[in-house]
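Try this one yourself first.
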């Protein structure tokens, strides 16, 4: 069976009312998502699927850790994410996204693939700037050896920058 099929809800067979689902998002999930910017993670997703007569309301609770690259020392580390998301599903002639929270799906659809939504929610929960946290004593958890290497490299780049040579020549005149 296609792994991502685990994230498809065959809603046709559900009675009106509340239904609970849980999903485990792991490394394989991100491997299967095309062009995923995330490679590793471990996230639990609890879904309350509320089936009403004419629409569905989905409440997601997302909680876990995602591997990201630190913007300061470029070492990978796990960033904790936690949050809620809501998705309203209504019916229409063709598929369209009405807003971030409301989608319209064709009337004759009988299942919905939630993998793209779960992926998007996880991405939204990550900050734009991803930095190691500080320890309680204020010390950064960044990889100091990596930072030293990065500093050395940027120093070397500055030294070999032809603009600096021109400046040096100007100074010696
Ligand atoms: Zn770092």
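Now uncover the answer:
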């Amino acid at each position: 069976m296609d792994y991502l099929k685990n994230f498809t809800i065959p809603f046709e067979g559900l009675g009106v009312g509340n239904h609970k689902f849980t999903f485990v998002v792991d490394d394989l999930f991100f491997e299967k998502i095309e062009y995923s910017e995330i490679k590793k993670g471990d996230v639990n997703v609890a879904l309350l699927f509320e089936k009403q007569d004419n629409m569905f309301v989905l409440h997601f609770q997302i909680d876990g850790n995602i591997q990201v690259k630190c913007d300061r020392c470029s070492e990978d580390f796990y960033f904790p994410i936690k949050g809620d998301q809501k998705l309203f599903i209504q019916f229409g002639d063709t598929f369209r996204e009405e807003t971030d929270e409301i989608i319209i799906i064709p009337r004759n659809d009988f299942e919905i693939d939630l993998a793209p939504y779960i992926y998007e929610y996880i991405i939204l929960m990550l900050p734009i700037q991803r930095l190691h946290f500080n320890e309680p004593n204020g010390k950064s958890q960044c990889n100091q050896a990596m930072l030293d290497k990065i500093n050395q490299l940027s120093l070397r780049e500055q030294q070999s920058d032809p603009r600096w040579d021109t400046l040096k020549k100007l100074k010696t005149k």
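Discussion: Residues 3-136 form one domain. The CA atoms of residues 16 and 52 lie 6 Å apart.
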